[in-house]
DNA sequence: CAAATATAATAGTATTACTATCATGATACG
DNA sequence: CGTATCATGATAGTAATACTATTATATTTG
């Protein structure tokens, strides 16, 4: 999809930032290096001060763009989900066969990012790692409901619902399309994490990726006639 | 199971604590009130100082029992998984029918805790909430591999493997028993979370609990003849 | 060229997650 | 019974965090 995306910009909820990081050079460097740093040292150890040092800028300047590191994480993950949604819609758009369509969709959302540097300052592979390791932390807080009301998770939610609709398109009698959709998304992140850190808790590894596991599980259920 | 557990003690990896909280009155109060507080204000906002105030004790005294709040969270979640494992083994032990056995197992691990105060100072219902909301934070860190090596997750891992074995017992040709087991455990926590905070991303609610969703999904797959 | 704007530098604050030290009160044991 | 040991408490201190506020300087724009 390299060529095609040349003039696309992924839109992110404006509340995640004070000043749009896409609007300046410093902003882009903040995003670029925050991805590198969070991937490297983890979200807990990541601070705006360290980031400032890394990019030869000042802590206080970073605060002009992002209110807090939580909001920056929101920005990054929203960007990721928006980007994934774009890839999903783009790849499944022309497909009329509903099963083929869902298969493609599952492939897109469960696959590890390989290389896709259309957005020069965003390393999608590392961003994928960050989502695997840190995304849960953006909603596992006491502020979820407030954040949710303000729309911080809307892209992610839309993605789950899109998947859910594709599931319904295959079997409108299946009683758990949304749970299945959310299981695919979240479960895939989890399987990727296990692959890296708890290999004894997953059957997924190099040749046997989460994608296959989920495609098998989902289609066995949707092709079955069991109406529970 | 009330009567039967009277003299049972759930064993937790000794590395999680400095001094066994079960060994003293203060220790038990620390555990009891940390559960109440973490549930109420969330792990991020929870501090040993606040806990000290709550129980009329001193911050420094709490540090005699737990090295850090991370370790306390480890202690609490290990206790929870140990307790769940006990319930699982206890409830499935006599069952010879493999399908009935797995059904029972899924029920145990995916169901919300109702009331089970055999351990007077531990509120299992709130602890269940804590596991839903905070457990991921104990492994989504840069220290996972080190912590894992030291055995902090052994009970949880054993639980996943037990489930995995029950799956194999039903269909030894199924290629993803461990992934299915880990999906049940983690996915169930996730569905419970969604129920509370993102109702639009799940089909689970009062009458339609995660248990049913997982039993249906798992057995449709294991009863099928599709060998992928 | 002046005004506005972006960034940098510096300082300061409350809180956190501890560590260290010393005091006190309870208990155990010889 | 007296003393040593141990558990707990009180206080102080530290480095780091997650910011806010203020002022200075450099850059852009009108």
From TrEMBL, chains A, B:
Pfam families: TetR_N. Residues 47-66 bind DNA. Residues 24-84 form the HTH tetR-type domain. It comes from the Bacteria. This is TetR/AcrR family transcriptional regulator. It comes from Pricia antarctica. GO terms for molecular function: DNA binding. InterPro entries: Homeodomain-like_sf, HTH_TetR. Keywords: DNA-binding. Gene3D superfamilies: Tetracycline Repressor, domain 2.
């Amino acid at each position: 999809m390299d060529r095609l995306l040349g003039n696309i910009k992924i839109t992110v909820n404006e509340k995640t930032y004070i000043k749009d990081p896409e609007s300046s050079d410093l902003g882009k460097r903040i995003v670029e290096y925050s991805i590198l740093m969070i991937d490297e040292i983890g979200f807990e150890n990541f601070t705006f001060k360290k980031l400032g040092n890394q990019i030869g800028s000042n802590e206080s300047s970073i605060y002009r763009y992002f209110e807090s590191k939580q909001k920056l994480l929101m920005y990054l993950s929203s960007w990721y989900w928006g980007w994934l949604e774009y890839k999903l819609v783009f790849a499944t758009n022309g497909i009329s066969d509903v099963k083929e369509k869902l298969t493609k969709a599952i492939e897109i959302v469960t696959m590890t990012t390989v290389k896709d540097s259309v957005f020069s300052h965003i390393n999608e592979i590392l961003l994928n790692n960050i989502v695997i390791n840190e995304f849960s932390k953006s909603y596992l807080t006491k502020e979820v409901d407030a954040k949710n009301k303000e729309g911080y998770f809307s892209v992610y939610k839309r993605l789950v619902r899109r998947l859910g609709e594709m599931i319904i398109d295959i079997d409108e009698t299946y009683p758990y399309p949304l749970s299945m959709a959310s299981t695919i998304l979240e479960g895939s992140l989890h399987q990727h994490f296990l692959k890296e850190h708890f290999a004894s808790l997953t059957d997924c590894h190099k040749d046997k990726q989460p994608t296959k596991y989920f495609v098998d599980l989902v289609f066995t259920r949707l092709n079955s006639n069991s109406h529970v």
